[in-house]
Amino acid sequence: MAPDNGTEIGAADRGGIDDFVANFGALMAASGMPGLTGHVFALLLAAPDAQLTARQIGESLHISPAAVSGATKYLADVGITRRLRVPGSRQVMHALVNEDWYDILLTRNNVMEATRSLLLAGCQAAGGPDTRAGRRLWLNAELFKRLGAALGETMEKWRAERPGILAQLPRPDEDPRGAQPSRRVKDTQAARGLAE
């Protein structure tokens, strides 16, 4: 299941990656993500360059082109991935928008505020918090108010702390043991304008 997208995976444990994709995909499905979408998301998270073609996704997960299309469309629609054209080719890469979920969670924070506003409007329409329905709606609005505030605070901390956290890690193209990236990885990086 682990992708072989033309880059060296190095010390990656293909069996461990397969387990991660299966388990993370199942967790996302249990959380409400449709079909095999969570598996595709997990596969992109675990891919060395966080991008794969539809064919690579289908071959890695042993799923049909229609299933790949549905999953990648959903991920793009919710802002997790984007489609990239491979220069000089008809090929399309499905790539993660960001390495972490920062942008996705910021969007969710906006959804929480919109949900809170709708719940408050529903509370007023139901006769205010003095009625049983109004009380229930008001209580849920208060929950979303607190969830949104907590998420907002966490996202601000993450934005401030992220550079320091990343600074503690070796660069992805550096082997912590001092080995140099393979010629294939260097060529891929140069083609994408990633080489220094």
TrEMBL record:
Bias-annotated ranges (Basic and acidic residues): 184-196
Keywords assigned by UniProt, alphabetized: DNA-binding, Transcription, Transcription regulation
Top-level taxon of the source organism: Bacteria
UniProt region (Disordered), positions on chain: 162-196
GO molecular function, one term: DNA binding
Family annotation (InterPro entries): HTH-GbsR_regulator (IPR052362), WH-like_DNA-bd_sf (IPR036388), WH_DNA-bd_sf (IPR036390)
Database matches in PANTHER family: HTH-TYPE TRANSCRIPTIONAL REGULATOR MJ1563-RELATED (PTHR38465), HTH-TYPE TRANSCRIPTIONAL REGULATOR MMPR5 (PTHR38465:SF2)
Protein name: MarR family protein
Species of the source: Propionibacterium cyclohexanicum
